[in-house]
What does this fold into?
Amino acid sequence: MALRVPINLATEPFRRDRPMLAGAAAIAVLLSLLLIFQVFTIVSEHRQAADIRIAIDRENAQIRAIAAQQAKLNATLRKPENAEVLERSLFLNTLIDRKAISWTKIFADLEKVMPYNVRLVSVRLPQVNSNNQVLLDMVVGAKDVAPILDLLKHLEGAPQFGPYSVQTSTPPSQTDPFYRYHVMVSYAQRL
It folds into this structure.
């Protein structure tokens, strides 16, 4: 006799839940590993940030100590008995800087770039800026504008001279037949 099992597949269909459960379990494990990695990364970055804050605080403390020392030295220099020595020192340093500029070299370098039909009307004492660069303040003249433009091109191309700026220009007059240009140019002679 055969055993009959009463299963009605029409009302209770067969479901395949095992692959779905296995996939959900694998995703849960993967997400748990990602969570652990994220927590580890956050804790590691928090420790690094704390170390950086400690280093910044240490550097700020050193800066404050150096600023306090500088203020103390400045106070010493500002005393009336030291002010005269400081002024004299600045004056002598300025004289030494000006004396270090070779006029012979300046004129030799200008001769190399100046066209034959441009005249050097005047050159003022070179100025030395805070970067120890020499600035030439000169007035040049010519009977036409083209030679002065040639001079400016030559200044631009010469390695001894840096950027230039034309301060003013004066056209010829009844008493002066020359176009005059007031030019400031940096000179490569460093101190």
Remarks:
- The chain has two domains: 19-78, 102-187.
- DSSP finds four helices and five strands in the chain.
